[in-house]
Design goal:
There is one protein chain. The protein is α+β, with helices and mostly antiparallel strands. It has one domain: Electron Transport, Fmn-binding Protein, Chain A (Pnp Oxidase, Chain A, Roll). It is built from four helices and twelve strands, in the order H-H-E-E-E-E-E-H-E-H-E-E-E-E-E-E. The strands form three sheets. It has a seven-stranded antiparallel beta sheet with strand order 3-2-6-9-10-5-4. Strands 1-11-12 form a three-stranded antiparallel beta sheet, with no helix packed on it. The protein has a two-stranded antiparallel sheet with strand order 7-8. A hairpin with a 2-residue loop joins strand 9 (about 140-150) and strand 10. The N and C termini lie far apart (about 45 Å).
Length: about 180
């Protein structure tokens, strides 16, 4: 019997108990995992904020970004536990998600670096509420951290959207099979 409306709670619970959800399936190593999931094209975003107590922007690049909910408006992105920038961003009253365009590969690479002034040479303005908006980004989404969920070697950040808009017209910067590009 399928798990449609007629399935009993005990049947569903029994099926769940029969699945080994805690074990890694045999044959799944990091290289293979990255190779297979790399076949799913993603856009690239820059998560930015003005650091507390300063007027300087900070930011990081991410390709794990998605919409979550319309009511309330929520988005999510993932950040590695090893990020040295996320601790500087998480306390900001507002974050700005910049959806990067194809010509912004250098911006992405700069924000992916460790240490130093990541914003050196990056032109930016401010959103109406003061968030760092990177020039040339396709759109911006201003949000605040709603929840964080530890998930393996990353944290999933769920953020509430407060404002958003289109900014620039161009092709998106895409990440596919371990490299950056655009539509061809």
């Amino acid at each position: 019997m399928g798990h449609g409306a007629g399935a009993s709670a005990s049947t569903l619970a029994g099926d769940a108990a029969a699945r080994p959800s805690d074990r890694e399936p045999p044959g799944v190593d990091g290289t293979r995992f990255r190779s297979v999931l790399g076949r799913f094209a993603t856009g690239v975003v820059a998560i930015t904020a003005v650091e507390d107590g300063t007027d300087r922007p900070a930011g990081l690049a991410a390709n794990s970004f998605t919409s979550v909910s319309l009511d309330p408006p929520l988005v999510a992105f993932c950040v590695a536990h090893t990020s040295t920038t996320w601790p500087r961003l998480r306390g900001a009253a507002r974050l700005c998600v910049n959806i990067l365009s194809e010509p912004q590969l250098e911006v992405c690479e700069r924000l992916a670096l460790r240490g130093g002034d990541k914003f050196a040479g990056i032109d930016w303005t401010r959103t109406p509420n003061g968030g760092p908006l990177i020039e040339g980004a396709l759109a911006w989404i201003e949000c605040s951290v709603e929840q964080e969920h530890v998930a393996g070697d990353h944290v999933i950040v769920v953020a509430r959207v407060h404002d958003l808009d289109h900014h620039h017209d161009a092709d998106p910067l895409l990440f596919y099979k371990g490299t950056y590009g655009t539509f061809t």
